[in-house]
Write a structure and sequence with these properties.
- Belongs to the YicC/YloC family.
- This is YicC family protein.
- Its cofactor is a divalent metal cation.
- It comes from Phaeodactylibacter luteus.
- The strands form two sheets. The protein has a four-stranded mixed beta sheet with strand order 1-2-4-3. Strands 5-6 form a two-stranded antiparallel ribbon.
- The chain has three domains: 91 residues, Ribosomal Protein S5, domain 2, CATH 3.30.230; 40 residues, no CATH class; 138 residues, no CATH class.
- It contains nine helices and six strands.
- Helix content is 63%, strand content 14%.
- Helix 1 packs parallel to helix 4, helix 4 packs antiparallel against helix 7 and helix 7 packs antiparallel against helix 8.
- It has 287 residues and is of the alpha+beta class.
- The chain starts with a strand and ends with a helix.
- Strand 3, helix 1 and strand 4 form a beta-alpha-beta unit.
Length: 287
């Protein structure tokens, strides 16, 4: 699910800004944007983020500003001079305009880098604290979104349960209509006196057994209850299990639709499918 958190803290003459944001993803994909002198801590930083953010396409950005408001970066003057010397020679020889040479050199690797090569323990402790703060806000953002998502999912599942309860009277009427239609068809083709009532009842029972949806209704009701139970649990990473349950719900609904032989039941099945599709869309966004 989506999430966002940003925190700024001061350390000596610096301001450390940490921003964490995420987009929906089935897997954990962490992108890190940090100053060059923090690279040695990247592995540790990734673990901190993965432990607390759990899942999603997550991007963490750390920016360090100096006391004068500028970024904590320095210029490699020796390398800049070498690039400038060589590029000036080539531009003179090849008669190439030099209008954008400055910007071109600044974009070359290692010309602009962090002012320090490493980070000391005190500064890393300050960064760690700031990262924790940003992740706390990030989690709070997700919690608010998750609660809204939970309410919507509960609404959709309860809607399916309500539609399921409306099937019983429709199914009784369906059986009565099927019996009457089959009886009328036999009498029209064979004549009323030639219809064997016992054989007719046997065939009716066999046919009704094939289109009976009692088992599907029971299983769908259980799936709905199970879905709500899992949704109410106070634990992370429930999205995959909810996805599996919704797939099972879909199987039962599809089977009922295939056995319906009733326009009214088909309409209820279509409404169930509509609610289920909304559930699947929302579940894909859960952690």
């Amino acid at each position: 699910m989506t999430g966002y958190g940003r925190v700024s803290n001061s350390f000596d003459d610096k301001v450390i800004n940490v921003e964490v944001r995420s987009l929906n993803s089935k897997y954990t994909d962490i992108r890190v944007k940090i100053p060059q002198n923090y690279k040695e801590k990247e592995h540790e930083l990734r673990k901190i983020v993965s432990d607390k953010a759990l899942r999603g396409k997550i991007e963490i950005t750390i920016e360090v500003e100096t006391g004068n408001g500028g970024d904590e970066y320095g210029l490699n003057e020796a390398l800049f001079r070498r690039y400038h010397q060589e590029l000036s020679r080539l531009t003179n020889e090849l008669q190439i305009p030099t209008a954008d040479m400055l910007q071109a050199i600044l974009r070359l690797p290692n010309v602009v880098g962090a002012a320090a090569d490493t980070i000391d323990d005190k500064e890393w402790a300050a960064v760690h604290k700031t990262v924790d703060g940003a992740l706390a806000k990030f989690t709070e953002f997700r919690t608010v979104e998750g609660n809204a998502l939970k309410e919507d999912l509960l609404l959709r599942v309860n809607n399916i349960a309500s539609l399921l309860a409306r099937l019983d009277p429709e199914e009784e009427e369906r059986i009565t209509k099927l019996r009457q239609r089959m009886r009328q068809s036999l009498e029209e083709h064979l004549g009323k006196d030639k219809v064997d009532d016992n054989r007719f009842e046997q065939e009716i029972l066999f046919y009704l057994e094939k289109i009976d949806i009692t088992e599907e209704k029971v299983r769908l009701e259980q799936h709905c209850k199970y879905f709500i139970e899992e949704l109410e649990k106070q634990q992370p990473l429930k999205g995959r299990k909810l996805s599996f349950i919704s797939q099972e719900m879909g199987r039962e609904i599809n089977t009922m639709g295939a056995k319906a032989y009733s326009s009214n039941i088909q309409k209820l099945v279509v409404e169930m499918k509509d609610e289920l599709e909304k559930i699947k869309e929302q579940v894909a966004n859960t952690v």
